[in-house]
Amino acid sequence: MVRHIYACPLRWSDMDAFGHVNNAVFVRYLEEARIDFMFQLAPGDGSPSFSGGSVVARHEIDYVRPLVHRHAPVTIESWVTKISAASLTIAYEIKDEDQVYVRASTVVVPFNLEAQRPRRITAEEKAYLKEYMDDSADSGSGALAA
């Protein structure tokens, strides 16, 4: 299984009064990694895949340990744990080489912005997502595999 790797910079404004990354900021980090992952197949090469929009149906996050500000980016690994006709589940780990800060998952629904309704995953999108698929019982996200 291949994992998508995203180097996410930390910003001073991400910190809370206790000196670590605020829990709500981690959702933004997940969004940055997810957009980078999904849009690698998007219109740069003329493909319409994932360009029509998507909506988040669910987030699940386990905060494992605090992350404090530093100049080096944190690594976000992403992979797919489930693909259905009209949704997919992405699992993540926000980590350094030797420790994990967050384990999370997101259910994403492709969305037709013109029609304002969900749409099915295309064959092209499904083929791309399957490259990152981990359907094993232990996909690295524990109970978060949805």
From TrEMBL:
Keywords: Hydrolase. It comes from the Bacteria. The keyword Hydrolase applies. It is an enzyme of class 3 (hydrolase). Its EC number is 3.1.2.-. SUPFAM superfamilies: Thioesterase/thiol ester dehydrase-isomerase. One of its GO terms (molecular function) is hydrolase activity. InterPro entries: 4-hydroxybenzoyl-CoA_TE, HotDog_dom_sf. This is Acyl-CoA thioesterase. It comes from Streptomyces aureus.
